[in-house]
């Protein structure tokens, strides 16, 4: 089972920030938080990941709480093309573990 | 385009037939993964390779499924005696060992009639 909890769906107005929450209360000290998204009928797309510090790249920002039990993915200026299912995943980086464990994710609908 | 590619993108087959899918990973990536995704669900892990070695297999990978990566580059996933329950999107991903971000291909959508 996925080790994360996300809302099933969210709406966001175009041009506004989209804030997608994720709970991972059982996260271990060596587990990273990864975010992927999947636009309809395409393969998942990597967005960002982090361990304990906040991270930012050209796509999004990741805010991780100090106790690491939850995080928020921020899309600063959502566009219609950001409509997708967003997956929050925790996993150990490195080592022999191969797979990502996906939950059902959050379906984000960006509306004009 | 230097991303992960998959072929074919769509496959329709009749129950009982065999099908084979191909995945070409990002060229320098030594890890390759197969996932399956059914409607409304997140992707589910099937198996992964490091170079040519198959290191992990999920319980989802029944004996009708076989995956190979003979030269440590491209991989094939074969399903024998397909069943209607095999209808799904089959996704391939690759990564570089030690840098665990997985990059996914566009998927092969299989429909078994």
Would you kindly provide a written description of the structure presented here, covering whatever features stand out?
The complex is a heterodimer of chains A (112) and B (113). The model of chain A has no long low-confidence stretch (mean pLDDT 91). In chain A, the strands form 2 sheets. A 5-stranded mixed beta sheet of chain A has the order 1-9-8-3-4, with no helix packed on it. Chain A has a 4-stranded antiparallel beta sheet with strand order 2-7-6-5, with no helix packed on it. Chain A contains no helices and 9 strands. Chain A is globular. Chain A has strands at residues 9-13, 18-23, 31-38, 45-50, 55-56, 61-64, 70-75, 84-92, 106-111. Chain A has 112 residues and is mainly beta. In chain A, a hairpin with a 4-residue loop joins β5 and β6 (61-64). Chain B is built from no helices and 11 strands. In chain B, 35% of the residues are buried. Chains A and B meet through β3, β4 and β8 of A and β4, β5 and β10 of B.
Mean pLDDT of chain B: 93
Q: What is the straight-line distance between the termini of chain B?
A: 33 Å
Terminal-residue CA separation of chain A: 35 Å
Largest interface pair: A-B, 25 and 26 residues
Which short descriptors sum up this protein?
heterodimer, A: 112 residues, five-stranded mixed β-sheet, four-stranded antiparallel β-sheet, 0% helix, B: mainly beta, globular
């Amino acid at each position: 089972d996925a080790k994360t909890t996300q809302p099933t769906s969210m709406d966001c107005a175009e041009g506004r920030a989209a804030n997608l929450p994720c709970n991972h209360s059982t996260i271990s000290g060596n587990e990273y938080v990864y975010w992927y998204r999947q636009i309809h009928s395409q393969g998942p797309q990597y967005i960002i990941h982090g361990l304990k510090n906040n991270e930012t790249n050209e796509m999004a920002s990741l805010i991780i709480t100090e106790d690491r039990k939850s995080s928020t993915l921020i899309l600063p200026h959502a566009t219609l093309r950001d409509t997708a299912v967003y997956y929050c995943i925790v996993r150990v980086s490195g080592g022999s573990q191969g797979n990502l464990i996906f939950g059902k994710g959050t379906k984000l609908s960006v509306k004009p | 385009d230097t991303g992960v590619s998959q072929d074919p993108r769509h496959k329709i087959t009749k129950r009982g037939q065999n099908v084979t899918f191909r995945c070409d990973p990002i060229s320098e990536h030594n890890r390759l993964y197969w996932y399956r995704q059914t409607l409304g669900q997140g992707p589910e892990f099937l198996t992964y390779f490091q170079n040519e070695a198959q290191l992990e297999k999920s319980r989802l990978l029944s004996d009708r499924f076989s995956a190979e990566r003979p030269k440590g580059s491209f991989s094939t996933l074969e399903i024998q005696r397909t069943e209607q329950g095999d209808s799904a999107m089959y996704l391939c991903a690759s990564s570089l060992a030690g840098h665990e971000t997985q990059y996914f291909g566009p998927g092969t959508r299989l429909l078994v009639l």
